[in-house]
Specification:
Blueprint (H helix, E strand, L loop, with lengths): L10 H9 L12 H28 L4 H12 L3 H26 L4 H21 L3 H15 L3 H11 L2 H29 L6 H20 L26 H11 L2 H31 L4 H28 L5 H21 L5 H30 L4 H14 L1 H36 L9 H6 L1
Length: about 450
C-alpha cells in the first residue's frame, strides 16, 4: 500500500515548515518617515537579540577551556588528548558553519539560531554528566556541529537588515558578542571550575536553554517578513532559494572570487592566534606564569573584553576611513597583534600589570581581523550568498584547530610553552602576508550584477 506524503503535523513536515524562510507580508509601513521608523525599531531589535543569543552560544562552546585543568587531574586526560577534543570540535564546527551557511541563505534565521542553541544545551548536559573519554568526545563533537547553527543565521540577518555602506560598523558592534560571550564565560566558568568541572557545563546549559526560548520569542527573519521593503542599495528580493541561478551565484560570488579565498586562508592564521590564547590561555598562565586558575581566567576574560573595543574601532575605520575595505584594516591589526603578544611573552614573570596590558592589546588587535573577515566576505558575496561565504571562511578558521588544538598541545608537551608562543607568533606573521594580498579587494560585490 502506498504511503501518503502529508503536509500535516508529521515530524518531518513540521520541521520543514519551521525552517522555511518567513514569507513576505503586505506592507505594514507607509511613507518614508514611517518606513524609516520601522527600520530603526526592527534593526535595534535584530541587532540586540542576535548579540545576546550569540553571546550565549559561547557559554556552551568555550567552557571546556576552563574545565581542562580539573579534568586533567580528575580524569587523567593528557594535554594531547584535550587538544584532540579541541581539534575535532573545531573541525566539525567549521564544516557545520559552511553547511549551515548554505542552508541559512535559504532558511528561517529565527528557527535555525534558536534550535541550534537548544541542541547545544542538550550536548552540554550530556558532556557534564559523562565520564569516559569516548562519551565526552562524542558529545563535544556533536556540540561542534550544532554550534555551527549560530553564526550563519546572524550573517543572513545582518546582510538583509543593514545596507553595505554601514555593514562593517554595525556588524562590528554585533561581533562584540564574541568577546562579551567569551569574557562572561571566562568569569562564570573560572568560578564554577572551583566547584567542580562538571558545573562548567551544566550551569551554562541551563542559561542556553533560556536563551533559545528568548530567541524564539523576539527574533524575526527578513524585513519583508514584518512588512518592510527590502534594504535600499542591495539587490532586490533575493528570490527563489531553489532557483537555477543559485549555483551560479555561489560560483561567481563565493568560490570564483579570489579575494574570498585569500580572506579564508588568512582566517586560518587569525584563528590560530585567537584560539591559541583563548583555549590554552588559562593553562599557560597557570603553568608558565604561576597564576592560580581564577586569576588566569580573569586575564583571559580581559583579553576577550579588550577585543570589544578593537572590533568597534576596526569597523568604524573600515566604513569611515577605508571606504569599506576591511582587508586594509586587518593588515595593520595583525601586525600590532603579533607585536603585542611578543611583548607579553618576553616580560618577566612577576610583571603582572604590564603582561596583562600586553595580552589585552593582543586581544584588542586580533579581534579586528576576526570580525572584519566575515564582514568583508559577506559584502563581497552580497546578501544572496553572505552566509555561505561566511561559512566558507569559517571552514578555514576552525580547521586551524588542528594547529591551535592538537598541534599546540603537542608542541607544548615536547618543546614547552616557548614553542607554543612561537607557533602563535608564526601564525601572526603568515596572516600579515596574506592580508597584504587583499589590499585591492573591493568594498562589496553589488556592482558586479549591474555591470553584467
Amino acid at each position: 500500500m502506498e504511503r501518503k506524503t502529508s503536509t500535516g503535523p508529521g515530524a518531518t513536515g513540521w520541521l520543514w515548515r519551521i525552517f522555511q524562510p518567513s514569507p513576505a507580508i503586505p506592507p505594514a509601513y507607509h511613507g518614508e518617515e514611517e518606513i524609516a521608523g520601522g527600520y530603526r525599531q526592527w534593526r535595534r531589535r535584530i541587532l540586540v537579540s542576535t548579540m545576546i543569543g550569540y553571546a550565549i552560544y559561547y557559554f556552551v562552546r568555550k567552557n571546556l577551556s576552563f574545565a581542562m585543568p580539573a579534568m586533567q587531574e580528575e580524569l587523567g586526560i593528557s594535554k594531547t588528548d584535550l587538544g584532540i577534543f579541541l581539534t575535532l570540535h573545531g573541525l566539525v564546527y567549521g564544516l557545520s558553519r559552511f553547511a549551515n551557511g548554505m542552508l541559512a541563505d535559504r532558511s528561517n534565521a529565527r528557527a535555525m539560531m534558536a534550535v541550534g542553541l537548544l541542541l547545544s544545551a542538550l550536548m552540554n548536559v550530556g558532556f557534564g554528566l559523562g565520564s569516559s573519554v569516548m562519551t565526552l568526545g562524542v558529545f563535544w563533537v556533536l556540540n561542534g556541529w550544532v554550534q555551527g547553527m549560530g553564526f550563519p543565521p546572524c550573517a543572513r540577518l545582518m546582510t538583509h537588515w543593514f545596507p553595505p555602506a554601514v555593514l562593517a560598523s554595525r556588524m562590528s558592534v554585533w561581533n562584540t558578542s564574541h568577546s562579551v560571550g567569551a569574557g562572561l564565560t571566562a568569569v562564570l566558568c573560572g568560578y564554577l571550575a572551583s566547584l567542580g568541572w562538571r558545573w562548567c557545563f551544566l550551569v551554562p546549559a541551563v542559561i542556553a536553554l533560556f536563551g533559545a526560548i528568548y530567541l524564539w520569542m523576539v527574533l524575526r527573519d527578513t524585513p519583508p517578513s514584518v512588512g518592510l521593503p527590502e534594504v535600499a542599495g542591495t539587490e532586490s528580493a533575493e528570490n527563489a532559494p531553489h532557483s537555477k541561478e543559485s549555483k551560479g551565484v555561489l560560483r561567481k560570488k563565493v568560490f570564483g572570487n579570489p579575494f574570498i579565498w585569500i580572506f579564508a586562508l588568512a582566517n586560518f592564521f587569525v584563528y590560530i592566534v585567537r584560539y591559541g590564547i583563548l583555549d590554552w590561555g588559562p593553562t599557560m598562565l597557570k603553568e608558565a606564569k604561576g597564576y592560580d586558575i581564577s586569576h588566569a581566567a580573569g586575564i583571559v576574560a580581559a583579553f576577550e573584553i579588550s577585543g570589544v573595543a578593537g572590533m568597534l574601532l576596526a569597523g568604524w575605520l573600515t566604513d569611515r576611513v577605508f571606504g569599506g575595505r576591511g582587508g586594509r584594516v586587518c593588515l595593520f591589526c595583525m601586525v600590532l597583534a603579533g607585536v603585542s603578544l611578543w611583548l607579553f611573552w618576553n616580560l618577566p614573570s612577576g610583571s603582572t600589570v604590564p603582561a596583562t596590558i600586553c595580552l589585552c592589546a593582543g586581544g584588542f588587535f586580533i579581534y579586528g581581523p576576526q570580525a572584519l573577515i566575515g564582514i568583508a566576505v559577506a559584502n563581497l558575496a552580497t546578501k544572496r550568498a553572505a552566509a555561505t561565504a561566511a561559512g566558507f571562511t569559517g571552514i578555514f578558521g576552525y580547521a586551524s584547530t588542528v594547529i591551535s588544538g592538537w598541534g599546540m598541545g603537542h608542541v607544548v608537551e615536547t618543546a614547552g610553552w616557548n614553542g607554543g608562543i612561537m607557533l602563535i607568533l608564526g601564525a601572526s606573521a603568515i596572516g600579515t602576508v596574506l592580508f597584504m594580498l587583499t589590499w585591492f579587494a573591493g568594498a562589496h560585490g553589488y556592482e558586479d550584477r549591474k555591470k553584467g
